[in-house]
Amino acid sequence: MPLAPLKERKQLMAACLERDIPLGGWNYCATLDPDGTKLLLGRPGGILVIDLASGGTHEVEVPAAAYDAVSSVAFTPDRTRVIATLWVGSVAVLTWPELRCIAAHRVCDTRLHGLAVLQDGRSAWVGGHDGKRTRIDLDDGTVLAARAGEQMWMADAALSPDGELLVTADAACNVRLCDPDSGVERRSLRSHGIAHDMSFHGPELLLPALTTAIVDVASGATRAGFTGEHKLGAQTATLLADDLVATGGAHDPLLVLWNRADGSSALTLKPFNKGAIERVLRTPDGEHLIVVPRCDHAVQIWHATGLTEAARRCP
After folding, report:
1. How far apart are CA 28 and CA 84, in angstroms?
2. What distance in Å separates the CA atoms of residue 100 and residue 120, rounded to the nearest whole number?
3. In sequence order, what are the residues at sequence separation of 6 or more whose Cβ sits closer than 8 angstroms to the Cβ of residue 66?
4. How many CB atoms lie within 10 A of CB 281?
5. How far apart are the C-alpha atoms of 11 and 265, rounded to whole Å?
6. What spatial distance separates the first Cα and last Cα of the chain, rounded to whole Å?
7. 295 touches 287 (CB < 8 A)
8. pTM above 0.90?
9. Which of 52, 85, 224, 260 has the most neighbouring CB atoms within 10 Å?
10. pLDDT tens, 26-60?
């Protein structure tokens, strides 16, 4: 589906865009707090916290990232701590909601990108340009397991909702399904492009890449794939509804809604005039879609129902 005409896009924004929260600078990662009321952005030097209801912001310095950046961020299952990987090769542990840094563990001398916190909340898998997946104890930084084989570098990691499967993606387009305790590879898949922002949705794995794919984890079969308007691939994706996927461009400012059943595009919007989209996030209550730019512009909060209805009306 080509980009909607400007008049239609303005009408849709007037009807569905609830709030713009202006910000400047680079955003390297983003996640919502478990309640979906606050947005955490990994940035140079620390974490920016945005209250989605008021639009208020405050930035927290992460000491180990003072001269670098936060590359990924996640909550522990008990919601008491925030774990952040840093480009300087360290992992920081912060309390929530205070975001007080209580530990920083050196893992390697190169950049870290991937992060998956295990269900025990006491350990996490991390990886990056060292070409390894490493499980560390979040309290004392002890290496509990380490596996080589991430080609070029690890780009992302994710844990299944039941905690029974660790998935990693590397820069050579390999997606590995691994044991979450030992990190031993069980089997592998291939992605069309480097996968980022991987997420589980029931028995399926959503893989944003040059071609974004929905993969059945049990069989490894691709159920749907989408390239569409993202000529150089998607950076991020989420399920907007049972039948719709939302993707943000890795090298374009397009937000595309596409049909989960067959991979056809339903609606294409341009939230920003230039740049790229770092994250699209659906709030836990399903009411809103949060669109995060990679640099400058504004965080946008969209009504998910309005976007869904507009996409379904498109021929």
Report:
1. 12
2. 21
3. 45
4. 22
5. 20
6. 9
7. no
8. yes
9. 85
10. 999 999 999 999 999 999 999 999 999 999 999 99
Tokens of 94: 């912060």
For the stretch 95-148, pLDDT in tens is 999 999 999 999 999 899 899 999 999 999 999 999 999 999 999 999 999 999
- The tokens of 147 are what? 């596996």
Output 167-175 pairs: Cβ under 8 A, ≥24 positions apart. 167/116, 167/198, 167/205, 168/114, 168/116, 168/125, 168/127, 168/133, 169/114, 169/194, 169/195, 169/196, 169/198, 169/207, 170/194, 173/209, 174/150, 175/207
Residues near 149 by Cβ (< 8 Å), separated by ≥ 6?
A: 131, 132, 133, 176, 185
d(CA 296, CA 177): 35
